[in-house]
Fold these 2 entries.
Entry 1:
Amino acid sequence: MLNERLRNLSVIDSLLWLLRAAIIVMVLWGTFVGLTSGRADGEGMGQFIQRCTTQTDVGTIQCMGKYSAETWRDFIIFGLAQGGIYALIALGYTLVYGVLFMINFAHGEVFMSGAYTAFFVANAFAKNGFLDSNPIVALGIVLLVSMVTSTIIAILLERIAYRPLRRAPRLVPLITAIGASYFLQYTFRGLYGSGKKVYPDPAILTGKWDIFGIPILKTQVVVFVSAMVLMVVLYWFVQKTKTGKAMRAVAEDKDVALLMGIDVDRVIVITFATGAAMAGAAGVLYGLLFKQVDFIMGFIPGIKAFTAAVLGGIGNIPGAMVGGLFLGVFESVGPSLFLEGLGVPAAYQLKDVIAFTMLVLVLIFRPSGILGETLSEKKA
Amino acid sequence: MALLELENVHSYYGSIHALKGISLTVEKGEIVTLIGANGAGKSTTLRTISGILRPRQGRVMFDGQDLAKTPAHKIVNLGISQVPEGRGVFSKLTVMENLEMGAFVRTDKAGIQEDIEHAFTLFPRLKERQKQVAGTLSGGEQQMLAMARAMMARPNLLLLDEPSMGLAPILVDGIFETIVNINNEGTTVLLVEQNALMALQVAHRGYVIQTGEIVLTDDAKALQVNEMVREAYLGH
């Protein structure tokens, strides 16, 4: 039986298997070398392992490579925070794909439009002191402005750029999306200028909180918790409300949904709007975490969120959440964990490479994603 | 005045002329069947009535309103429900959610709850499986669900597209029994079937459709003994 399977293995298959094996070996080897680089001069591997497993205070004795246990923990926490942002953006890709089987490549710009517009509100609040005297109200307003802006942009996008092409071949709206993406970038450059703008840092979010004895930057906590809360609300909306159920019905069969009396066009608009509101919220969180915005800020996070959506299984809502968090952590930990071990200089600058390598690998080896089902004929 | 009246209706799929001047009427309280071979235009006729397909010519009048001018999602509101060909249950939604979607246009929560209970007494199997996703149901159960879902809109006219397709003969009997029950409760039925024998047994009147045209219409009993029908559709 095994013989037969071996004989049926084509050249391409063998190459792909080799590629898989090579990547796994590289990651494992890099990790191993990276983690054991704290070995003292002349210390054997056995001694090293014994020393590290018998002593409990691992942080101070360099048992985890160049970095202490605290640093690794901080990498992971930062990864979760940025992963929350990726996940929120990824939801927009996945929701729209769910109902239209279309990748809205202008979604990154929907995210940018909210974050960039809200910057001016945040900046005004920071200047007149409102941001520090009433931080919660101020941040609430900033968040609202961002979500509303993104939603309006997405609704216009759907109405003007996508709806007229609903019955066109699938490549057409994809190309339109790329065009719309550039149109939005340069419209906002024209409106707001091409320089980087520094997001104000509310005083309430400076410093750290002690959470279960672990000191964590307040912004990271707020970003992660907000992202989680929004995702839970969205999941509830899609699963439990009448509109959410109608969304799922439209995603499955538009003609039958029409027979139920569901206004399919309206549901599609609501889907775009929901995804955009999440992206708008992600925009403010991005401003808080990375402290700066500009007119092309949507591009890289947009593609990373798309990667996250594909990673989790596009069209699958929990998949987008899991994919986003996974990508965020992997990207944050990866460079120090295995790229440095492999001897790559300035590994942290290569974190984008990790994300996009991951996109290519997922597309080659598991196009349906982590939680995705096998694509049916109809969708594929 | 007839409840439903099609007058010289022409429908197209792109450039394919699928309905070539269909005229038919359905009176209140009747079961009318539309029989014909595969590809004759039976489903197309139903799709034209429910608004998924727009007639290029002719009128579709329901209760005095011109359906060709009504947006498709508002046709349910007027009192027409359709059980689509191949059942069309939402396979990723639960049985309960499917029924709720059937009542999408209604806002009377108490009434909806009542109708769900009623559907469960008609189809006890659905009650047992209310939390299961519809994709896990058997073909017969899916057909029951599709019919129960269509009834959730409290229609005056029920359009049924091949309810017997792909079902075991014993289930087919049950489905046709249900059709008669639904009709006895006051719902008018337009039934599209390839199984002409069964359809003519439950229907009051019938139309025979061939390549997009009505070629024959009569009482169901007369059609059952009609030479042409017997040869073409009843197999003897």
Note: The beta strands of chain A are 197-198, 208-211, 214-217, 292-293.
Entry 2:
Amino acid sequence: MTRSNEQTETLAFSMRGISKTFGSVCANEMIDFDVRQGEIHALLGENGSGKSTLMNILSGIYRADCGTIEVFGKQRVFHFPGDAIRCGIGMVYQHFKLADSLTATENIMAGLSEAQVRRAIKSGNDVNEHDVISSLTDRDDSSIRRRRDRNNRMSDLIRGYSERFHIDFDPDKPASQLSVSEKQSVEIIKVLIRGARILVLDEPTAVLTPQETKRLFGVLRKMRDDGCSIVFISHKLGEIMELCDRVTVLRKGRSVDTLVVSEVDTYDLVEKMVGFKIDLQIERPEPDPERLECLRVEGLSYRDEKGVTKLSDLSFSTCYGEILGVAGLAGGGQKELCEVIAGIIRPTSGDILVDGEIITGLSPRKISAKGVSMCFVPEDRLGMGLVASMGMVENILLKEYSFQKGIFVHSEKAREKSSQIIEELDIVTPSVTHPVRLLSGGNIQKVILGREIHLKPKLMIAAYAVRGLDIQSSHTIYRLLNEQKEKKVSVLYIGEDLDVLLALCDRVMVLCQGVNMGIVDTKNTNKIEVGQMMSGTKLEVLKRGVDYVSNN
Amino acid sequence: MFRITKRDKSSISDSLIFRSFGFAVGIILSMLLILLLGYNPIASIAALFDGAFGSLGGLRNTIKFAIPLATTALGLSIAFRMKFWNIGGEGQLLMGGTAAMFVSLIAGPNIPGWILIPSMLIAGIIGGAFWALIPGIFRIQLRTNETLFTLMMNYVALYLVKYLYHDLWRDRDPAKFNFPGIKMIQQQAVLPNVFGISVGIIVPLILAFLVYILIKRTKPGYEIRVVGESEPTANYAGMNVKRIMLGGVLLSGGIIGLAGAVKLAGETMTLTDNLTGGAGFTAIVIAWLANLSAPFILVVSFLVAGLEQGAQTMQLRLGVPAAVADIVKGLILMSFLGSEFFLRYRLVMTSVIGKNKRLHSQMKNHCDDPNVSDVSATRSAESDLTDDCAVRDEKAEVR
């Protein structure tokens, strides 16, 4: 008993017997989850294993069907997110919630009550307390000068926080001008200022370069040493091994185990996560040695409606029987590149050739008929490529109906094809007319890939094909892409995970703000190099730098 | 304390039960209201049903009301499928009627009916389509808000008709003692009656079939569905979204214009500013109640028209004021629509843990997506924007 008492004292929070069902789906089933003070605790699990649900219960967005939550030794019931915030629990979401036109400071202050500001100032020790309070509580004061003054003092407070945790950003910059990692810092400060001692970060590294990730880890470690508890949601095993102290693994809504990270290896974690041993190795069959050119892009530029340059003077080519990867930060022009090649948007200048034939300016349907196939999985998974409320048959018709004769749509062939794809790719669906929106993420992605593969393309563009998929489904997709490669299809793979890009692709092109930073052979490059290119250093410059170092 | 949870799926029998329950609640509320006002509630409700469906004459009137409602709702359903929020049914009806009236006015008195009637109907289609085309083009080319635009176009049409009625097309026959009004259409232009029902009845029946086939079986219908679901996907599949949307909008307006022409030729026989009788708006409710499905639109139109007719009978028989009859109509429709909520969600009793301080049972239905239902029913007004967004974002994860 004494031991357990000791434990409760050092626990930041403890969730006991948490269950939550949505309709007939059991998202959480009797989950116990304890996090100690001053530790970084990873929450690991595949998509749909219940991580987000559990954290939403912790932050007061959902209410558990049963179970108790104790925070700092006191039992709590959260009715609203505000309750959780008051108990010192802060969520940093994957998608940032910042108002673009406001400055970082204004974003951080938005929605803060005076009491909260006062509390924030009390804990922020670097700032002159009295001044800030008097300026902040002066309610009748409406003069612009005073208000600016108030903002300035808030900025000082925020600077205090930044210095304390070595977070680096300018509090007076408008949110629209902040980089992704700076936006994340703003979000972190936002919850800290609201008095959070427990931070929940939902896949914080998904949008960061390796360098930025490193910086974030530094910040998190500093916060841990300061006594904060951090819940780090991720499915990137490497990061968990590097950063976290303990890890709790969830599988299918149940908590499988809580382990001390230093005592396990990645294979153990994967086994816990999926329930059995699997091979994490991504195969890379040798590319076709003939290296026949399939796609050639010359001086491609694209400016969007607002006049923002999304692609600038891009030139590269792909070969039959190889996978060319495209790496880059989110919004670096990958989406536009896909859309330009597929004919959905028109480039401002430049040419695209397939088999030496210019396809620039052709309609998407004609380009598709020339053997260019694109499957693009957007962030919401269903936005482009599939019609959510339609079944497989009607989704397969999307690419075929226009070639049918007459005014009526004939679905017999598509029906056959659907059954074939279901069998080949092992898709789980009650029927071929079941709305694809109701399928799981992996199955949705298989539907779109299956459709595109069945068109027997010469060039296949797979953008974010494993977005949100669990390990097994991801590996199925990699295998499918490799099969295409062996069938001498030229594959353009746009990916997010650098490890996968380097393991799967033969060559990787790095885009940064629409500029080609260089193409590297994956056999002789590494994450650091690619990471530097992602943040804007051209390959030539890198190489020159290396030469420079080696020459001196 | 209650919690609101999403239902898995509701069976047809559930749906029937909840719908009838909603209907019953509407009737009970109406009876209470009537009782409070000092009328006999049972006799009133009896009059409502009897007037609508009880007699041949009542039934005829119900069908008369249902014809423009059903036709307009069918037209609207096409636009709604594309997520083009056409609430300009009123204006398109009026313009359809105006165009038909125009044909009738310029045609001499001796043109045979078999030429005149089709020309009037075709003119009606063109009139309605034209009126939908204007907001349609602005929406497609300039991305203006079609909801406001179509709504405003209603008023333009209304005042145009008023002008025609009072001035330009005014019948200056001395026999009319200078009362404003437009001439009646030619005798041979009036749609003939069969069993006391205008042959206009075949228009919604045929249209329902055609619209059903169009949407479910044909390429343009398939395209309309894809565009409505996701424009990026339509683009990706190589569809010409602008063309499809324009076509859909024209079709929608055209059908509604036809409804106006049919009403003019079959019922009112002249153009007045009250040609529509609010059908353009009621049809929006019908289209949604029927879930945009063509066959159901016929059924729902019939029921709503029955309500309309029944309310009139109630007014006549018991001397209930017109406004009360309108409120009764509104109450029944509203309760009927409200039952939709229970089809999607169910209430779960939760044990009360801790202090039961704030019992806002105000459910915030943030997004159109029903998955977000599980925001606990109690959310304080002070919960800030961030949290609201958070909920929205997590909805995908729920599955």
Note: Chain A touches chain B through 61 residues (CB under 8 Å).
